[in-house]
Amino acid sequence: SDEELGSSADIQLEALVATYRSYNLANHDRMVRAFPLVPELVRRIRASGMRTGVVTSKNREGTRRGLRLVGIEDAIEVLVCADDVTRAKPDPEPVHRAVELLEADPATTIFVGDSIHDLVSGRGAGVLTGAVLWGPFARHELEPAEPDYWLETPEALEELLLT
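and the corresponding C-alpha cells:
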C-alpha cells in the first residue's frame, strides 16, 4: 500500500540522515579548511566596526566547531543556523533573522554567499548580495540570482567593504 511505501521511505531517509550525521561528526574537524586570506579578512572587517554574521544550513554545533577551527569564532557576532529557523535557504527567513539580530538596515547590509541558495535567500530578504566566485560554483551557475556584486577573490570583497 501507499502507506507502507511511505513508511519504508521515511525509515530509509532517517537511516541516510543518521549515516550522514555520523560521518560528518567523525570527519568534520579533519575536513574543515578556511579559504586562503578569508579568516584574516573577516577579522579586518570586524575590526573596522562592521557587524558580522553567518547564515548557514549547518547546525549550530557544527558551525561553531568550524568557526573555531579556522580561528574566527570570536569575530562573528551572530549565527543563524539550520536549527534556528523553520524554513532554510533559499527561503529568505534565515537572512531576515540575521538582519534582525544584527539590528541592521537591509538596504545597507550585504549577504555574501557562494551558492544559488545563498543569493536567492539574500535577494528575497531585501539585502544586497555578493556572489563569491572562489567557492564551489561557477559564475554561470550563480547568474540566475542576479547578485549585486561579483566577488572574484577575497581581495575583491575586501576592496568592496574596506576601501
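(Above: one complete record from the training split.) Residues 2-31 form the longest helix (30 residues).
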